[in-house]
Amino acid sequence: MDDRPTGWRTRVPRERARPRWVRESPVSWRLAVLTVCFGGFMSQLDASIVTLTYPSLEREFGERLAAVQWVSLVYMLVTAAVLVAVGHVSDVVGRKLVYLHGFGLFALSSAACSLAPDLTALVCFRAVQALGAAMLAGNSVALVSLVAPREKLRTALGMQAGGQALGLAAGPTLGGVLVSTVGWRWVFWINVPVGVLATLLGRYLLPRTVERAGGTRFDLRGTAWLAVASAALLGGVSVFSGTPLPGWSGMVLLAVSAAASWGFARREAHAPEPLVPLSLLGDRRIGWGLVGALAGYLVLFGPLVLVPLVLTRHGESEMRAGLLLGALPAAFALASNLQEHLLPRRWNGRRRALTGAALSMAGLMGLAFACPADRWLICWLAVLGLGLGLFTPSNNETLMRAVPRRLSGTGGGMVNTARALGTALGIAVVTLTLELGDGRGAGSVLPPLPVLTLAAAAALAGASTVLAG
């Protein structure tokens, strides 16, 4: 029986089933989750790796840094703008279908980026690449939550979150190696064979969509309002994180975001087939879960940016700073994948998330009193990573259990949008507080002001767990 909704039947190809040996394997869900982690790792790796190409792009194209930074900015803005819409489309036409087409688009646009004749073309190709990345990221949480057994959902979501965090953290290191050896174009070329391989893996390892959202009409006006609200909010935050735009433009963008958010809420309240049913946000588990996702990634990416900056200002080499900082994403990945063995099995998700938030605050406070040469520095970074690795999958599990299965793509897109905003806020907090002070903080690794801000975000993450419970 064809379970696709009327109206999409003749325009959407049918998803292919997995081979029987995959479907019947006891580890089939793990293979599917690993495939999703692969996509999450690559899309986030590409978001962070490009910053290492800036000097080469300035030299080759003869452009200023203010223009070159749009290579990263357009990627971030497009991704944030379309994540929820992509998740909604995947709920209707099929999550596997959108995911595989996303990898194909990501690989093709990467090849185009590597052949770009000038900066304008590169920025345009990056916008297309961001759409492919959104098709991956917007489906990642949904695919994991649908394929994993109920009792393994927290572990599966931990694997997915760890893969994304490792991709973002590994970007600068890998980018530096590629740019310094074979040139900036290989930063994009490397995605092509990876995209082909991932598409093949997804074809055989990802399950078909069983439950789809109903409806035959796409909420184009709602999508436009949400895209403007998300992109303007992220753009406004980016102004305060070093984007070469005047400060007043940040306030204008934030005002535009607020107005577009109001327009989106009015549209969704009256739309016959809304992009995001407001009943989802009315569920406190979902609403506060999104707050927790935002706060968690703010806490994660604040130190990822701040610690290397302050260490190098204290005279440490970039290599040592990178090696020390590796303890944070490594501990995050370890805790998110092995938390069932690190904490009592009888603990529920709420208790695990609270423990993670408390450990995150402890790690931040430890960093506040550690000097660059302190051997405990790496330990405090690891404590912070462990805390976030315990909090993130537990928070996402609570949220995704509250989302109807037929709307899992929409829910996953909302989670990743919250993460993107949290990432931008973390960078903005770091940049703004360093501009306000001298960045040293009486010999500590982290100046007092950002520590207090990040600790407040960790407390907010813990509070969201209590309120969602």
Automatic annotation (TrEMBL):
Lineage of origin: Bacteria, Bacillati, Actinomycetota, Actinomycetes, Kitasatosporales
Gene3D superfamilies in UniProt: MFS general substrate transporter like domains
Domain Major facilitator superfamily (MFS) profile: 32-469
Protein's UniProt name: MFS transporter
Native source organism of the sequence: Streptomyces hesseae
Membrane-topology annotation of the record: Multi-pass membrane protein
InterPro entries xrefs: MFS, MFS_dom, MFS_trans_sf
The entry's keywords: Antibiotic resistance, Cell membrane, Membrane, Transmembrane, Transmembrane helix, Transport
One Pfam family of this chain: MFS_1
Transmembrane segments: 27-45, 65-86, 98-117, 129-149, 161-180, 186-206, 218-241, 286-309, 351-369, 375-392, 413-434, 446-468
Main location: membrane
Entry keyword annotation includes Transport: yes
Subcellular location: Cell membrane
